[in-house]
Design goal:
DNA binding; about 140 residues; globular; mainly alpha; Lambda_DNA-bd_dom_sf; HTH cro/C1-type domain-containing protein; 434 Repressor (Amino-terminal Domain)
Length: about 140
């Protein structure tokens, strides 16, 4: 479970980088994208009263701010929240649409897809951090 400060700090960073966005605008945008969030819920997350918001809520917030949901995961070593924000900033709207499609799946199926994506990411990290286990026949 994430600490309350985790989401408080991440939301503060999002609002700092998007000073023209109000809480109401974020909630309306999340709703338009299929992930309704009430202003009360967003306020409770921002104030640390909701410590571990659900996946759909986090997805709605990420989509409203046009950042990859990865923004809410643990940082890479030495990475600041500002670094995470710039890394997670979506430049391709189709990525957000894909996330919306994924979260519209039934819970069991979306959990399975997310687990598969985690395995793929771990495999990719292992492949990029060391020599390939596969040999070449060249």
């Amino acid at each position: 479970m994430a600490s309350a400060d985790h989401f408080v700090d991440h939301l503060a960073t999002l609002f700092r980088h998007n000073p023209d966005l109000t809480a109401g605008a974020v909630c309306r945008q999340a709703g338009r994208l299929g992930h309704p969030i009430t202003e009360s819920c967003l306020s409770q997350i921002r104030n640390g009263h909701i410590r571990d918001p659900g996946f759909t809520t986090i997805t709605g917030i990420a989509m409203a701010f046009r950042v990859d949901i990865d923004f809410f995961t643990m940082p890479k070593p030495g990475e600041t929240l500002d670094d995470k924000y710039h890394r997670a900033r979506l430049t391709d709207a189709s990525v957000g649409e894909t996330v919306a499609d994924l979260t519209a799946l039934p819970s069991g199926i979306s959990d399975a897809v997310l687990s598969l994506l985690e395995v793929m990411a771990e495999t990719e990290d292992k492949d990029s951090n060391g020599p390939s286990a596969a040999s070449s026949d060249s």
